[in-house]
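[recover] target loaded
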């Protein structure tokens, strides 16, 4: 698939890793904001 587009495999791996890291950062930010909006407690304080 990548060879048909003229892209080397290493570039495809780099793009995939970068996209995954960016997606993870966006999701972490989203859930951090939602936690603040809903006034939820931290995971560490749930067992206390």
């Amino acid at each position: 698939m990548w060879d048909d587009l003229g892209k080397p495999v290493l570039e495809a791996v780099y793009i995939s890793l970068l996209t995954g890291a960016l997606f993870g950062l966006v999701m972490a930010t989203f859930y951090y904001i939602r936690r603040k909006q809903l006034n939820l407690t931290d995971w560490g304080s749930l067992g206390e």
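[recover] notes: The helical segments are 2-5, 9-37.
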